[in-house]
Every structure is written in structure tokens, then in C-alpha cells.
Amino acid sequence: MPSHAGCGGGFGRPCPAPELRGNPALVHGVLQSLRGVVDADGGNIVDRQLVKALHIGEDEAELTLAFPPSCGAGRDLAEGAFHALRRALPDTDVYVRHAV
User: Fold this and answer.
1) Which residues form the MIP18 family-like domain (predicted)?
2) Taking the model in full, what pTM does it have?
């Protein structure tokens, strides 16, 4: 079984679409940047449905990720997401949160 099997966001159930708020073009661009955050097997956090919410305001952005307990790479992926957001939104305060 691939090592990312425990990292799929749905815990065996279909995953709801992430909650997205902000300028649609900017949100889309940031999601594209987040596709560069990949696990050891090459899967990215967007396509693995680990992004639960992305809210982009004028001065801050908040990303909520959900990793199941079996996802040992969660901390590294969250840090990668933080750095991807900082590159995509250099003049914005960035917050990455974890939700269960």
C-alpha cells in the first residue's frame, strides 16, 4: 500500500470541496501554487483533498489543512504550504491551521 494512503482527506468518505473565499483569480492562483506541495509519493495537498479552506483577504490569508492521524508527513506538508503561500502572497500575513 502506498505511504500516502493514510493522507487522503476523506477518511474513506467523499470529501467536500474546500471552502474558498477571496478574489477568485487570486484564490485560483494560490491553489495552483499549493499544488507544488507534494508528499513523498508525488501527490499534492490540493488533489489529495487536504485543503479544507482557503480565505484570502486584503492583508491576510488563512489556509486550513486536515491530515488524518496516520499522515506522518503532515507537519512537513503544512510547512511546505506555508512557504508556498508566502511566495504567492509576499505582502500578506499568512496563517496555516490544522483541522481534524
Assistant:
1) 30-93
2) 0.81
User: In which residue are the cell numbers 511566495 written?
Assistant: 87
Residues 6+ apart with CB under 8 A from 69: 6
Q: pLDDT truncated to tens, each residue of the chain (100 aa)?
A: 233 344 544 445 556 789 999 999 999 999 999 999 998 888 899 998 899 999 999 999 999 999 877 777 888 999 999 999 999 999 999 999 988 6
Check residue 36 and report its DSSP letter. T
Distance CA 90, CA 40 (A): 27
Q: Go through the domains of the chain in sequence order and give each one's CATH number.
A: 19-98 (3.30.300.130)
